[in-house]
């Protein structure tokens, strides 16, 4: 995701890229992710999450490989797009899998660890960049993603079990689902039987809701966007996503080193690495309080702190105040 952040200047020179080409290479990652995340639900429902994870790891392994060997704009662009497709799948499949295998009382905590893992990956790329963001070694940063992708692919094939929820509700293989759930619940037969029965009840309620509301049978993305019955849901989703984008974290992830380079040319990579450390630590701390304090209080606190920090950063940049910018 952020592997091009620190070595961006070096890659621009090595591949003779223009500023617009660099921007396109950066943004095409999100385009690939948008396409795949839209298709992810149907893929996981039809084929299960294990197959979905295999497809995901293939995409981001191949994408990272194309990036690591790229010698021109086209191949770097293609690699970023393919990597983005893999990331889009992952951002849907991983939380879904975690939600389906986690105990109910710990779903919030385990679900938030998905974002902690994303931040850990961002931090890893920044740490690697401290030594490798130069003319000789920048490809090693991208090659590391290939190695991690291959390791993940092997682990998914050999170790990862299918979602017991999918096996029971979609494949109707209750015996296999029960067997996997027993391993996840420390062989507590009673708890597993109760949980599977809850899954079935939820599905029955869902089907009954569809039967009593015929318009839900033909519900699609267009209907969701235009049907007034979903107005409140659309508002919450839209403003939450807009708030996340306007918070400015994406500009730090993709362009942090470039932003800092004008003020701290010798230490921009290290400072950006420190930003990634703080991002991961705060996310981990928030995950510990997610189920205890609730989503809305933490979200409002986060928005307030981000707004305050953004004002400080803007003032620091405008008045060339290094201390304020870093803090």
UniProtKB/TrEMBL annotation:
InterPro entries named in the record: GLUT, MFS_dom, MFS_sugar_transport-like, MFS_trans_sf, Sugar/inositol_transpt, Sugar_transporter_CS
Sequence intervals crossing the membrane: 22-43, 49-66, 73-98, 110-133, 140-160, 236-257, 269-290, 296-319
Bilayer topology: Multi-pass membrane protein
PROSITE patterns, alphabetized: MFS, SUGAR_TRANSPORT_2
UniProt main location, coarse: membrane
Subcellular location field: Membrane
Keywords in alphabetical order: Membrane, Transmembrane, Transmembrane helix, Transport
Organism the protein comes from: Ambrosiozyma monospora
Domain Major facilitator superfamily (MFS) profile: 1-327
Family stated for the protein in its record: Belongs to the major facilitator superfamily. Sugar transporter (TC 2.A.1.1) family.
One cellular-component annotation, GO: membrane
Protein's name in the database: Unnamed protein product
PANTHER family (UniProt xref): FACILITATED GLUCOSE TRANSPORTER PROTEIN 1, SOLUTE CARRIER FAMILY 2
One Gene Ontology molecular-function label: hexose transmembrane transporter activity
């Amino acid at each position: 995701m952020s592997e091009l952040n620190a070595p961006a200047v070096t890659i621009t020179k090595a591949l003779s890229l223009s500023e617009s080409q660099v921007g396109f290479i950066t943004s095409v990652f999100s385009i690939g992710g948008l396409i795949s995340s839209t298709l992810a639900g149907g893929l996981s429902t039809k084929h299960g999450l294990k197959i979905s994870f295999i497809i995901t790891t293939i995409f981001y392994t191949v994408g990272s490989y194309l990036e690591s060997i790229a010698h021109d704009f086209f191949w770097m662009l293609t690699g970023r797009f393919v990597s983005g497709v893999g990331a889009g799948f992952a951002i849907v499949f991983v939380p879904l899998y975690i939600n389906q295998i986690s105990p109910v009382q710990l779903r919030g905590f385990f679900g938030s660890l998905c974002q902690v893992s994303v931040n850990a990956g961002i931090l890893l790329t920044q740490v690697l960049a401290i030594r490798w963001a130069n003319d000789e070694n920048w490809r090693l940063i991208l090659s590391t993603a290939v190695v991690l992708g291959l390791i993940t692919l092997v682990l998914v094939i050999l170790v990862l079990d299918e979602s017991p929820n999918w096996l029971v509700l979609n494949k109707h293989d209750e015996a296999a689902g029960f067997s996997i759930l027993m391993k996840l619940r420390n062989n507590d037969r009673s708890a597993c039987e109760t949980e599977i029965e809850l899954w079935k009840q939820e599905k029955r309620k869902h089907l009954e809701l569809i039967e009593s509301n015929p318009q839900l049978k033909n519900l699609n993305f267009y209907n969701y966007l235009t049907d007034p019955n979903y107005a409140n849901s659309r508002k919450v989703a839209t403003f939450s996503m807009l708030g996340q984008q306007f918070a400015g974290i994406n500009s730090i992830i993709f362009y942090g080193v470039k932003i800092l380079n004008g003020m701290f040319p010798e230490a921009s990579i290290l400072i950006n690495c420190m930003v990634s450390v703080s991002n991961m630590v705060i996310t981990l701390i928030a995950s510990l309080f997610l189920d205890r304090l609730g989503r809305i209080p933490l979200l409002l606190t986060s928005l307030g702190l981000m707004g305050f920090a953004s004002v400080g950063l803007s003032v620091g940049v405008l008045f060339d105040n290094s201390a304020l910018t870093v803090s």
